[in-house]
Amino acid sequence: MINKTVQSLAEAVKDIHDGATVMISGFGEAGSPIELIHALIDQGAKDLTVVSNNTGSGNVGLAALIEQRRVKKMICSFPRTTNSTVFPELYTAGEIELELVPQGTLAERIRAGGAGIPAFYTPASVNTPLAEGKECRLFEGIEYVMEKGIKADFSLVKCELADRYGNLTYHATARNFGPIMCTAAKTSIVQVRKIVEAGAIDPEIVVTPGIFVNHIIEVSHPANESDLVAQKFTYPW
Amino acid sequence: MVEKQVNIGWSKTEMAQNVAMDIPDGSYVNLGIGMPEMVADFVPEGRELIYQTENGLLGMGAVPMSGQEDPELINAGKKPVTTIPGACFFHHADSFTMIRGGHIDVCVLGAMQISKNGDLANWSTGAANAIPAVGGAMDLVAGVKKILVITRHNTKDGKPKILNQCSYPLTGKGVVDTIYTNLAIIDVKEEGLFVRKLGPNVDFEYLQEHTEAKLFQ
């Protein structure tokens, strides 16, 4: 019988190894799997390459993972946001690498990685510093830059509902990078607000088909990053 | 006798109004963070615009009532928003399929510099100590049908922003269609920058003095 449910956050992240590439869903706090990230901090893996749109805020979640010096390199589109101080300080000190990617290119690189497409051409960033050193090519008289798909060892994703097969639905704009990150990782680890019986999610509204998901763990009351930041929490607590 | 202070040009809200007047009924619109967001407040009666926010919502509504905010229902500026009846959510690859694939009609963005041929610089000053951050700007200018820029005509210290050539790193080359400043509305055409409308108490000579690139009437 297939059942992708695991019993604890620690079990969910136990296989993440030093040097792994980890995709982390979220756009700001929406969709950020804070509880999984905190479990990864407890687990101890280091020298990680993290693919995520932002770099977290305050001293919790992704910002805490970075603050604990577990992240060697960030691949992201917008590394500074309100209340984001950890990454900017380490970057200024030359202690963390950054690969800056236009947001749509980041999304498409993840999608391509998951879809078995090694590279593609996009018009975004042509004639800008972000296209320097990359192959450019004309199609129908317009210039495009080649970008490579990204694959990950693991993805950490937050969703709303899941069944034991790993079929997922999301909540509002927390969907963002979750569905594509599930496709692009060898092992997708998903924190779910509620695990339901198989069949309880109408097949017509499944957003992520279960084939893209490996482990699900129920976190019924996930923390809001903004609440933790407002209360000046630091992880580890 | 004290001379009455003459206001030169448009206020911020008037600039936003100017942009709103130029967006046709039925357009799918992406508004950048900051001043572009104000455009939504001035859509003329009888026009329906659908707002896309690149973090995964088509049919973005107004700011929620206090206490009704959902931290996972936000716009690209990471501020709480609402949905209109008929809104839909989608993931990031679909969002940028809309943007890059030419399905969005209008994008309103801010600017640091604009060149005479419509190059836009709005993401980085290129300073060595800056933390570079680009977000979706490069995808938006590459794919949205019309790029409208709303910006003060000059920098805070009075330097021109409309230049022969941008000195900051580009967001995109030859991408801007119209520039809405506090002094004028300027269309970017193949032959150059054409002033469509002058702000209150602005004459063409004054405008040209405050602009590095050559303007045409």
From TrEMBL, chain A:
Keyword Transferase: yes
Gene3D superfamilies assigned to the protein according to its UniProt record, in alphabetical order: Glutaconate Coenzyme A-transferase
This protein's UniProt keywords: Transferase
Keyword Transferase attached: yes
A Pfam family hit: CoA_trans
Source taxon at top rank: Bacteria
SMART domains the UniProt entry points to: CoA_trans
GO molecular function, one term: CoA-transferase activity
Name of this chain's protein: 3-oxoadipate CoA-transferase
Organism: Marinifilum breve
Automatic annotation (TrEMBL), chain B:
Keywords annotated in UniProt: Transferase
SMART domains: CoA_trans
An annotated Gene Ontology molecular function: CoA-transferase activity
Top-level division of the source organism's lineage: Bacteria
Residues forming coiled coils: none
InterPro entries: 3-oxoacid_CoA-transf_B, CoA_trans_fam_I, NagB/RpiA_transferase-like
Record-stated family: Belongs to the 3-oxoacid CoA-transferase subunit B family.
Name of the molecule in the record: 3-oxoacid CoA-transferase
Taxonomic lineage: Bacteria, Pseudomonadati, Bacteroidota, Bacteroidia, Marinilabiliales
